[in-house]
Amino acid sequence: MVLKCACPGCPNREKPAKVRKSALPTPTDDRLTFHTFPVNDPKRLRRWLLAVQRDVDFPLRYVSQMRLCSEHFSPDDFKTGPGKIRRLLKSTAVPSLFLQKEYARGLIKLRLNL
């Protein structure tokens, strides 16, 4: 199954390990990770949904299947899991970084077309 980031305009996807170009582990800080929405914490879930421009009444059965990539979180939002293999989100993390790359890509394309 291919995971797609739920943030509007974000092109990030994660392919299964056997489809990736390299299945070798990369340094934890460099690897793109995908995170589930906090469906068990209604206040935080509301903040996440508002941050990614989704209706706060979005059905939970769909929200539980959505993922958000690590590019939408600041480095301070992460903690290192056991063995420093996985990056985990802190229980207080809320996505806060959006569309910077997309705007930059748009500006570059605009300049090339002139």
UniProtKB/TrEMBL annotation:
Q: Which PROSITE patterns match?
A: ZF_THAP
Domain THAP-type as annotated: residue spans: 1-98
Q: Which UniProt keywords apply?
A: DNA-binding, Metal-binding, Zinc, Zinc-finger
Task: Please indicate if the UniProt record lists Zinc-finger as a keyword.
Answer: yes
Q: Name one Pfam family in it.
A: THAP
Give this protein's Gene Ontology molecular function annotations. Answer: DNA binding; zinc ion binding
List the InterPro entries hit by this protein, alphabetically: THAP_domain_protein, THAP_Znf, THAP_Znf_sf
Q: Give yes or no: UniProt keyword Protein biosynthesis.
A: no
The identity of this protein, by name, is THAP-type domain-containing protein
Q: What is the lineage of its organism?
A: Eukaryota, Metazoa, Chordata, Craniata, Vertebrata
